[in-house]
């Protein structure tokens, strides 16, 4: 039974219509309709006295028109198929050549004496596969794994060659290539969580929209970069330089940004839930509308930062510097602000319900319309603080 079904499928495949094949029955049909068409035209001409030519040549031309068109279509389709087959042959040759280059490059790469030459060869090979994915878009999904495979080989070697400046430049170039491909193609995805990259420095570069979730970027710098909508969830960015970078709408959920420099950066509407920003430098940073729920901001420098409308529920801001910061309308309910410096900060309309302000310095701060219901306010410095319409906790 299985054999008979398979046979039927094969027969069906053989009978499949091919536009590049000359089918006699279609040619006969075309001739038949051409004859009918010529008879109809002849009848209309006689009946309505249209004075159209009644020569034999004219009617023969009509009879031959449809078959001629059909034969032309068959010819053109055949040309297209021949061209397609030729392109496939060229593609197969290219793939074969790239596979040979890959073997040689890998052998060089794992040889200490030819390591750099192998690295350059593999980098060029990544570029070749990327170009192949663009030239043969229908096969791009087959080529993307090659890009990822070769890139993984190069990236995984950096931890053993941290001080090799030449290899580091290769890593940076590959880093750019992979992220550019990520920006240009939604179907491409590179899993960064398997790699730790060191001393990657990029300035004034556009990495908007890329997904680098899980990456370990240690002692790296991304000064003044465009990082809009970037995804860096669960990443380790300890000590990274992100000063003056645009991280608006970025995803940094559970990301380690301890000791990171974010001076004058734009983090508006960024997602930073459960992020570690301990000792981070956020002076002059714009965090308008950002989500920092449950984040760790112990000893972080947020002086003169814009934090209006920010969500800091349950955040830990112990000993944080918020001097002259703008926290208008921020939600700091259940936040820990013990020992925090809030001198001259704008806390208009802030929700500090159930917050811990023990030992905080609020001298010169504006707490107009602020809500401090059930907040801990032991040893708070209230010198010159604006407390107009402030809702204080009830004392028993």
From TrEMBL:
Keywords: Membrane, Repeat, Transmembrane, Transmembrane helix. It comes from the Bacteria. It holds the Pfam family Pentapeptide. The chain crosses the membrane at residues 21-44, 56-74. PANTHER family: THYLAKOID LUMENAL 17.4 KDA PROTEIN, CHLOROPLASTIC (PTHR47485). This is Pentapeptide repeat-containing protein.
């Amino acid at each position: 039974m299985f054999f008979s079904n398979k046979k039927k499928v094969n027969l069906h495949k053989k009978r499949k219509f091919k536009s590049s094949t000359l089918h006699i029955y279609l040619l006969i049909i075309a001739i038949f309709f051409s004859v009918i068409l010529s008879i109809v035209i002849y009848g209309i001409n006689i009946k309505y006295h249209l004075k159209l030519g009644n020569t034999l040549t004219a009617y023969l031309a009509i009879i031959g028109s449809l078959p001629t068109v059909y034969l032309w279509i068959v010819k053109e389709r055949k040309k297209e198929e021949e061209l397609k087959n030729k392109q496939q042959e060229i593609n197969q040759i290219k793939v074969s050549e790239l596979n040979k280059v890959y073997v040689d490059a890998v052998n060089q790469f794992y040889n200490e004496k030819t390591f750099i030459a192998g690295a350059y060869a593999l980098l060029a090979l990544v570029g070749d596969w990327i170009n192949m994915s663009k030239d043969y878009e229908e096969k791009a999904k087959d080529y993307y794994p090659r890009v990822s495979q070769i890139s993984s080989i190069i990236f995984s070697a950096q931890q053993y060659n941290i001080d090799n400046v030449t290899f580091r430049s290769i890593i940076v170039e590959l880093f750019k290539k992979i992220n550019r491909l990520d920006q240009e193609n939604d179907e491409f995805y590179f899993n960064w969580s398997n790699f730790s990259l060191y001393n990657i420095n990029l300035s004034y570069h556009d990495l908007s929209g890329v997904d680098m979730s899980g990456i370990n970027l240690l002692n790296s710098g991304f000064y003044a970069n465009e990082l809009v909508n970037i995804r860096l969830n669960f990443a380790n960015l300890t000590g990274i330089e992100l000063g003056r970078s645009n991280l608006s709408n970025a995803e940094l959920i559970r990301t380690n940004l301890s000791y990171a420099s974010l001076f004058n950066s734009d983090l508006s509407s960024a997602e930073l839930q459960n992020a570690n920003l301990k000792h981070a430098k956020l002076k002059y940073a714009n965090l308008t509308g950002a989500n920092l729920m449950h984040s760790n901001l112990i000893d972080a420098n947020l002086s003169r930062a814009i934090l209006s409308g920010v969500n800091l529920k349950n955040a830990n801001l112990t000993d944080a510097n918020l001097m002259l910061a703008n926290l208008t309308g921020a939600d700091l309910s259940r936040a820990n602000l013990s020992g925090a410096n809030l001198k001259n900060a704008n806390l208009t309309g802030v929700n500090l319900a159930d917050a811990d302000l023990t030992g905080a310095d609020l001298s010169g701060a504006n707490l107009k319309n602020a809500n401090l219901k059930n907040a801990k306010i032991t040893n708070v410095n209230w010198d010159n603080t604006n407390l107009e319409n402030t809702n204080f906790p009830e004392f028993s």
